[in-house]
Every structure is written in C-alpha cells, then in structure tokens.
UniProtKB/TrEMBL annotation:
The keyword Amino-acid biosynthesis does not apply. The keyword DNA damage does not apply. Its main location: other. Residues 88-327 form the Periplasmic binding protein domain. The lineage of its organism: Bacteria, Bacillati, Actinomycetota, Actinomycetes, Streptosporangiales. Pfam families: Peripla_BP_4. It is found in: Cell envelope. Keywords: Signal. This is Substrate-binding domain-containing protein. One of its GO terms (molecular function) is carbohydrate binding.
C-alpha cells in the first residue's frame, strides 16, 4: 500500500480505539477463548503464504501490440515507496516507447491538486495518480474529463467514475488481503495471547481497509483477542509516531504486537523502543515494508511483513493503460491482485528483493509483461 495523501482532517488524529476484550488461553491461566479449528486454519494459510510467488498473477494477453509514443503524467507523493512504484512506470513505459513525466508533490494539503494541475498542463495521453482521495481532486478530474485525458487511480477506495478508467489496483481487495494475511499470522503465532496495537492513519480510507481486515482475521480465530487502533497523522511519521508507540506500550503493558499499516510509519520506532528499555517487548509487523523493515527481519528484530511488489504495481498501471488504449476489456486486470507473500525472519533471505532491499514479488516480471503485450 502506498503514497497516501492528505485527507481533509479537522483535527490531529491521536485517538486510541480499543476493540474487544483481552486475550489469553487456558495454558496461561486466563479466561480468553481460542477457536482451535480457526487457528489451525490460519496456520495452514500462513504455511502457503510463506512461499515465493511464481508469476505476476496476470495472465491475459492484450489483443494487439500497443501503440507507441504515448506521454504519461504521474504526480508523485513524497513517500519513498511511491518513487519505487513510479520507477516501475518509467521502466514499463520505456519498454513500450512511451515517455513518462513524474511530477513531485509537496507535503501540503493542496499539493496533490497542484501536481495534478501540472500534469494536465503537459497535455498527456493519460494521468496516473495514487493514494489521493477523489474528493481532493474534483476540479482537476473534471478538467481531465473535459480535455479527454483518461485517468487511472490506484491505492484508493473510490469507485470508478466518469473520466477515471480504473481504481482497482492496490485497492480494497488487495489491501484487505494484506490485512487478512497479517491477522492470520498473528493468530497462528500468538498462542491465543495477542494484544495488537495497530498504528495507522484512519483518515486514509485504504489504510482502514487493512486495519479492519487484520482485526477480523485475528479475532475470528481468537474471539477474546484485543486490537487497539492508534491513529497518526502523516506528519507524525518519524517524529511523533515513535513516542506514540512507546506511550501505547507503557500505558498498557499487555500490548505485545505492534502492527503498522505502512512500513514507513516505523521510522524511528526501534530507536525509541530501545531508549525506553522496551526492545523485544512487542513483535513488529505490518504491510508495505521499507528496506529498513526487511533489514530488521534479517536481523531478527521484526516479525512479519506482507510483500508489496511496488515495481510490479507500476507495470500494472501501464498494463491497464495499454488495455485501455487498445480498447480491450479491463475486467480481468481489475480483478487480478499483485503477487505477494508473508515475509518473516525465517524466509527473508530467500524472497525476491531488489538491490535497495524492496520486495520485488517475481523477478521475471518484465519479460512476463512484454509477453502479454506482444513485444517480448
């Protein structure tokens, strides 16, 4: 999950919502309940999810060789993983003879709209945006529609609407899968004693999808498990979030898992835990790991992350545009998820990573897409 933009928040989100009762099992001398069958089912699912993907998942070829010479404009939010994804768009565009213009955004509440305005000024053949709620781009999307510029939105929860050809990529089904995967892992590895604090930004709807599905997967196996959702602002990343994690654990020592809805939220957290004498107090995991999270898995200091194939997502963006320009159906592309898996300290050295430590998903992705596009 990536590049989540600034929603219209009226106040700083720092509330903490505790959900369900504390968790335990009979071996620990507590009264918590565990659905043994559900836990066993979670363990079986986890065993499969630890395996490396064997392809890009998408297998439907396009109807004809794509046109060349297209110009694609891509507003880019400042999260590092967004840049990785957009490098995938650039790489895929080059393979097709397309030009890709990336437009960096600032961090202010109006900067997403300003970058979109700059994209429109380029008179591109298409625009790709991600993370920004449609409500923040109404005027820009209306102008794109009037100019006949197709728009592709990803990493959002908004439905397809006039002028936007697709919003499915890294959307609700994908992020729901990530939440379920991590929830199943915690259920399978907590011995019925999980109290998970989930650090997220609930004003970004796509992150709420992760949180809700994590909670459902965990509590279905351990009905008395506890999930505490701790909301952050994007500006808290690396600044206030580390202390928020420390304070959450100090306030309730029963917290034994710290789950993050985006890996970049862990920036500064290990150092803060170390300074507070809390290293090892909680198991750390979540979705969209950064290279620092991958390194921590290798060091054995973090527990589990879902693989987020950012580069492949960039190629999938281009694939969606190829199908649109060809006049092909988008149905299969809209329903096919990205390759992913659970990454732990036990399998991290065998999962596909790029030279910077980002999860790749499937190393042969470029050749696979070229074959689908009839150019390989």
């Amino acid at each position: 999950m990536i590049n989540f933009k600034r929603p219209l928040l009226a106040a700083t989100l720092v509330s903490v919502l505790a959900v369900t009762a504390a968790c335990g099992d009979s071996d620990a001398g507590t009264t918590g309940t565990v659905d043994v069958a559900a836990v066993n089912q979670a363990k079986a699912a986890v065993a499969q999810l630890l395996k490396n993907p064997t392809g890009i998942e998408l297998t439907e070829p396009v109807s004809k060789r794509p046109p060349t010479g297209k110009l694609i404009a891509v507003p880019e939010s400042p999260q590092p993983v967004t840049h990785v994804k957009n490098l995938g768009i650039v790489e895929a565009g080059k393979a097709l003879g397309w030009r890709v213009q990336v437009i960096p955004e600032g961090t202010g509440p109006e900067d997403a709209a300003k970058a979109f305005d700059q994209a429109l000024a380029l008179k591109p053949d298409a625009i790709v945006f991600s993370g920004t709620p449609v409500a923040l781009l109404r005027a820009q999307l209306e102008r794109a529609k009037a100019q006949g510029v197709p728009v592709l939105g990803e990493s959002i929860t908004d439905p397809v609407q006039p002028g936007i050809i697709s919003t499915s990529l890294d959307g609700v089904p994908q992020v729901a899968q990530y939440g379920k995967m991590v929830g199943q892992y915690v259920a399978a590895h907590s011995g019925g004693k999980a109290h998970a604090a989930v650090f997220t930004i609930s004003g970004y709807p796509i992150l709420t999808t992760f949180t809700d599905n994590f909670r459902q997967a965990l509590t279905s196996a351990c009905p008395s498990c506890k999930v505490t959702v701790v909301n952050q602002q994007i500006s808290d990343l690396g600044t206030k979030t580390p202390q928020s994690v420390v304070s959450t654990i100090q306030r309730d020592p029963s917290v034994n898992w710290a789950i993050f809805s985006i890996g970049d939220l862990t920036l500064g957290v290990p150092a803060a835990l170390r300074a507070a004498g809390l290293t090892g107090k909680v198991k750390i995991g979540g979705e969209t790991p950064s290279p620092a999270n991958i390194a921590a898995l290798k060091a054995g200091t973090e527990e589990v992350w879902t693989g987020f194939a950012a580069t492949i997502l960039g190629w999938r963006d281009v694939d969606m545009l190829v199908r649109h320009f060809n006049g092909d159906s988008l149905d299969t592309a809209n329903t096919t998820l990205l390759p992913t898996q659970l990454i732990t300290k036990d399998n991290v050295r065998s999962v596909p990573l790029d030279s910077n430590g980002y999860y790749v998903g499937y190393p042969g992705y470029a050749d696979a897409f070229k074959k689908l596009w009839k150019i390989g």
